[in-house]
Amino acid sequence: MIAKDSPLLAAARREATEYTPVWFMRQAGRSLPEYRRIREKYDFFTVCQQPDLCAEVTLQPVKRLGVDAAILFADITTPLVGIGIEVDLVESVGPVIAAPVRTVEDLARLRDLEPEQDLGYVLETLRILRRELPETVALIGFAGAPFTLATYLVEGKPSRDYTQVKTFMYRAPEVWRALMERLSAITIAYLQAQIQAGAQIVQLFDSWVGWLGPADYETYVLPYSRRIFEALRGQGVPLIHFGTTTAGILDLMASAGADVMSVDWRIPLDAAWKRVGMEIAIQGNLDPVSLLAPREVLWSRADDVLRRANGRPGHIFNLGHGLLPQTNPDEIAALVTYVHEQSQQYRSQGAA
Description:
CATH topology: TIM Barrel
CATH architecture: Alpha-Beta Barrel
Strand order of the largest sheet: 1-4-5-6-7-8-9
Largest sheet: 7 strands, parallel
Low-confidence stretches: none
Strand content: 5-15%
Radius of gyration: 19 Å
Structural class: alpha/beta
Number of helices: 16
Distance between the termini: 17 Å
Mean pLDDT: 95
């Protein structure tokens, strides 16, 4: 039986859908000229802090690209900004934190998050979006996972090797535990508030956790990811878990308790699905650079993802990471149409 509500929400529940739903990480902004015109007038956080403007940016890819979901326009570090951490988004670098957190004394700066008080503009944006989005388009909320937030807090900026954060884990395990507990509590409060404000599905971004081996992940990260998903389990919305370069820890990540595992292009989709378990939905996993390739190459790569999904319920088409800024929006829109049309053929043939 084909679900009648949002195809993306149905797929997250592993229900049959007419076609494979599509959305893209970093679909709001970056490659869209209408977003760039807005950024000529406002900096990133100013856009985020004006709900009407933020909702407009969030809706731009839905209107232009035909994707099956809108994802809140915000930054992973938004809850840190909410509790008073000074974050500067540096062009071509990323989030930069002038005063890193590296000692037990520094933890005092990480107070509890009061979502309505600290991030009321985020919640108002979600309320606007729920009023404006059609029922068939899902509204995605998100947060950075504790480890990924910790990489910014400890390193002070994006890193190539995460030496400082890994050394922190090894040399000060008790301080690390306290840091992860505080970040977990902040993340839970943030995501619960997003759900109450209208988010219909939420994604936990652990973007940099792939730098850890299985033993380190299991010891230093997994307990906190598991705690977050357990806290959200009763909220009634599907939960997505995302990371990159995570082929070696996919089974451990899946054990954290999400409904959907988002995987990158470094492992074939069917192999990843077997690794995490077919009782979990899967999201991914096209290489973002494929959208810069000739059209026949793009179609071939998209076909490979769909062929590996094989028409099974529970696949959400996405990239293995975010859209690249130089991507042509017309190519993105064409890919959405192509996936919708081709996936119907796979469904008509039936899953093997």
